[in-house]
Write a structure and sequence with these properties.
By secondary structure, the chain is mainly α. It has one domain. The chain is 78% helix and 0% strand. The chain contains 13 helices and no strands.
Length: 293
C-alpha cells in the first residue's frame, strides 16, 4: 500500500533485489525478536508496543493528523490492530514458519479468484495441501494456535482489500494513508492490549525493544518494499514473494531455534510452490478486489 517513498540518490545505486531481501528479512526478523519480548510483556503487550512505535515513527515522518480519515482508513486501522494481536498470539503457540505459511493461503485464493486458470487451480491445490500438512501436524497439540493463525490469515486477506483501496485513495496516498491508519490502529489496539503493556512502563529495556520491533516489523519492510517494487516487474516481485514463508522458517530456526519437522518443511515447501506457481492477472485482480470490497 506504500507507494510514494521519497527518492534518495543513494538508494538508486542499490539493486532492487537487495531491497527485497532486506524487506523479506525484516518482515519476519521483527516478529522473531518480538517472541523474545514475550517474557516481559506477553504477545498482546508486544503487539501494542509494535503498533504504537510504528504509529509514532510514521506520524513524525508524514504528519498524517492533518488528514481526514474515511471509512476505508478507519477499517484499515481496526484490521491492523486486531490482525497484529492475532498474529502475535499465534506465533506464541506455533512456529513462525507455520503461521507465515498459513498467512499466505488467502493471498493465493484472492489471486486465484482474479485469474481463473488451470495454473492458478494447481497453485491453490498446492497451497491447501501445504497448509493441511502444517495444521495437521499442529492441530491436536495447539488448536487455539491454529485458530488464531487462520484468524490472522483472514484478517490479512481483508487487509489486502483495504490496502488496495487505500493505495488508490483519491485524496490520501501511500505512506500518508498508512500513517493515519496506523494512528487509528494505535487507538483501536489500546482497549485490547493496552493493559498488557503496563508492566513495561517502568522497564526501559522492554520499551526500547518494543520500539525496535515496531521499526523493524512495520516501518523498514514497507519502505524497502516500495524501493524494490519501483524497479522490479510485477511478475518478478510476485515470484520473489513466494520465498517469504521459507524465509520465516529459516529465521525461526536461527533466532528462535524452532526446528521444523519433515512434515512441516514439506508443508512450507508446498505453500512456497503454490505462491510461485500462481499466475497474476492485474486487471482481473483489480475487479475481484472491487467486488470483494
Amino acid at each position: 500500500m506504500v507507494h510514494d517513498v521519497i527518492a534518495v540518490p543513494a538508494a538508486r545505486r542499490v539493486p532492487p533485489h537487495a531491497w527485497f531481501v532486506g524487506s523479506a528479512v525484516f518482515h519476519y526478523l521483527g516478529p522473531a525478536f518480538a517472541v523474545l519480548l514475550f517474557v516481559r510483556v506477553g504477545p498482546l503487550g508486544t503487539a501494542w508496543l509494535r503498533i504504537a512505535a510504528a504509529a509514532l515513527v510514521l506520524a513524525a515522518w508524514r504528519r498524517p493528523w492533518t488528514l481526514v480519515a474515511d471509512r476505508t482508513l478507519w477499517a484499515l486501522g481496526a484490521v491492523l490492530a486486531v490482525m497484529n494481536c492475532c498474529f502475535y498470539l499465534a506465533i506464541d503457540r506455533l512456529p513462525l514458519g507455520t503461521v507465515a505459511a498459513i498467512e499466505f493461503l488467502p493471498v493465493i485464493v484472492l489471486a486465484a479468484l482474479g485469474a481463473r486458470t488451470r495454473r492458478n487451480g494447481a497453485a491453490l491445490a498446492l497451497a491447501v495441501a501445504g497448509v493441511y500438512l502444517l495444521t495437521g501436524v499442529r492441530f491436536e497439540g495447539e488448536p487455539l494456535g491454529v485458530a488464531l493463525a487462520f484468524a490472522n490469515a483472514a484478517l490479512f486477506a481483508l487487509y489486502i482489500v483495504l490496502a488496495h483501496k487505500t493505495a488508490r485513495h483519491p485524496a490520501i496516498t501511500g505512506i500518508d494513508g498508512l500513517g493515519l491508519a496506523m494512528l487509528i490502529a494505535a487507538v483501536a489496539v489500546t482497549p485490547i492490549a493496552g493493559w498488557a503493556v503496563l508492566p513495561a512502563l517502568t522497564d526501559p529495556v522492554a520499551i526500547l525493544a518494543g520500539v525496535g520491533v515496531g521499526v523493524s516489523s512495520s516501518v523498514i519492510p514497507y519502505v524497502a518494499d516500495q524501493l524494490a517494487m519501483r524497479e522490479l516487474p510485477r511478475a518478478t516481485y510476485a515470484l520473489m514473494v513466494s520465498l517469504l514463508p521459507a524465509t520465516a522458517t529459516v529465521i525461526g530456526v536461527v533466532v528462535l531455534a524452532q526446528l521444523p519437522t519433515a512434515a512441516e518443511l514439506a508443508g512450507v515447501g508446498l505453500v512456497v510452490a503454490g505462491v510461485a506457481l500462481n499466475e497474476h492477472d492485474p486487471d482481473r485482480e483489480t475487479r475481484v478486489v472491487e467486488v470483494v470490497s
